[in-house]
């Protein structure tokens, strides 16, 4: 936005004073909508979406495609595959919005989104499954030099664990029917950071196989635990049905589907 956090806070206070209502409540992690604030936001968001649409009509960018993905999906799958996309579609201006929040097709102006979850995502969206949530335990080769193959569950349970925000280790160990006996653990906010920590030899990470396929192939990581189909949290690409005649958007969608199928 080009302004400081303090400036934003001041603008919020001025808006509340002007309206004579409290729009936000202050919580430990920042701000949260009050009921009045949420209602107001829902109304003005549509207005801003209309303004953005009108501006786009005045200054069209016909070859621009904005895709919303998580930072981990961007870092571990989309960006490594971009050279192939650029070679196939040099005239498309692909822009990536990497965020943990669920972006809005209307208010954020995105054309495509990769979401993790379970359908339905909305009647107005075309939905395509990209990757099943197949989790594997991975570690640096230095951790496995005395055991070149997958560890037995009991041994795996004793190794240091690297946790991400999904914190699926308890469910995975329950699937293996073993308790967590690791002496320590590392907790990180993103899966991509957990992968990097595993490569650095900090312990064992639990990740979707497709996110570490390249690392496994070149030997930066090795698989040390059996695969687990977590279920209900797969990866999908979403496109508004209204975009079916938008050639650049359809081209990006087609490329993502083909590239993901080739990785399986």
How is the main sheet built? 6 strands, mixed
Helix fraction? 25-40%
What is the 3D form?
Answer: globular
The CATH superfamily of the largest domain is identified as Periplasmic binding protein-like II
At CATH level 2, the architecture of the largest domain is 3-Layer(aba) Sandwich
Number of strands: 13
Span of the ends, CA to CA: 39 Å
Number of helices: 8
- If you compute it from the alpha carbons, what radius of gyration comes out, rounded to the nearest whole angstrom? 22 Å
CATH class of the largest domain: Alpha Beta
Q: What is the CATH topology descriptor of the largest domain? A: D-Maltodextrin-Binding Protein, domain 2
N-to-C series of helices and strands: HEEHEHEEEEHEHEHEHEEEH
SSE-based structural type: alpha/beta
| Uncertain runs | none
Q: How many discrete structural domains?
A: 3
Integer average pLDDT: 89
Strand content of the residues, in percent? 15-25%
Organism: Phaeobacter inhibens
Pfam families: HTH_1 (PF00126), LysR_substrate (PF03466)
Family: Belongs to the LysR transcriptional regulatory family.
InterPro entries: LysR-type_TF_proteobact-type, LysR_HTH_N, LysR_subst-bd, WH-like_DNA-bd_sf, WH_DNA-bd_sf
Topology, element by element:
Blueprint: H1 5-19, E1 24-27, E2 30-33, H2 35-58, E3 64-69, H3 71-88, E4 93-98, E5 112-117, E6 125-131, E7 134-139, H4 153-158, E8 161-163, H5 169-176, E9 185-187, H6 191-199, E10 204-208, H7 213-218, E11 222-223, E12 228-229, E13 234-240, H8 247-263
Parallel strand pairs: 3-4, 3-5, 8-9, 8-10
Antiparallel strand pairs: 1-2, 5-13, 6-13, 7-10, 7-11, 7-12
Keywords: DNA-binding, Transcription, Transcription regulation
Domain HTH lysR-type: 1-34
GO molecular function, one term: DNA-binding transcription factor activity
């Amino acid at each position: 936005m080009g302004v400081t956090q303090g400036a934003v806070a001041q603008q919020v206070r001025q808006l509340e004073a002007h309206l004579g209502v409290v729009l936000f409540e202050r919580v430990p992690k920042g701000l949260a909508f009050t009921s009045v604030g949420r209602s107001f936001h829902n109304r003005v968001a549509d207005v801003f979406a209309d303004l953005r649409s009108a501006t786009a009509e005045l200054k069209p960018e016909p070859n621009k495609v904005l895709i919303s993905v998580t930072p981990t999906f961007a870092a571990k799958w989309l960006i490594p595959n971009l050279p192939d996309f650029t070679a196939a579609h040099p005239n498309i201006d692909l822009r990536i919005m990497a965020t943990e929040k669920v972006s809005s097709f209307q208010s954020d102006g995105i054309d495509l989104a990769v979401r993790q979850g379970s359908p339905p995502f909305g009647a107005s969206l075309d939905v395509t499954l990209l990757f099943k949530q197949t989790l594997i335990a991975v570690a640096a080769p230095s951790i496995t030099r005395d055991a070149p193959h997958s560890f037995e569950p009991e041994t795996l349970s004793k190794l240091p664990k690297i946790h991400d925000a999904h914190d699926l280790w308890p469910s995975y160990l329950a699937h293996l029917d073993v308790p967590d006996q690791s002496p320590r653990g590392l907790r990180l906010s993103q899966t991509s950071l957990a992968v990097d920590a595993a490569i650095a030899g900090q312990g064992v990470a639990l990740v979707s196989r497709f996110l570490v396929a390249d690392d496994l192939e070149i030997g930066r990581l090795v698989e040390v635990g059996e695969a687990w189909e977590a279920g209900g949290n797969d990866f999908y690409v979403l496109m508004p049905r209204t975009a079916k005649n938008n050639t650049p958007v359809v081209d990006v969608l087609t490329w993502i589907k083909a590239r993901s199928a080739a990785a399986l």
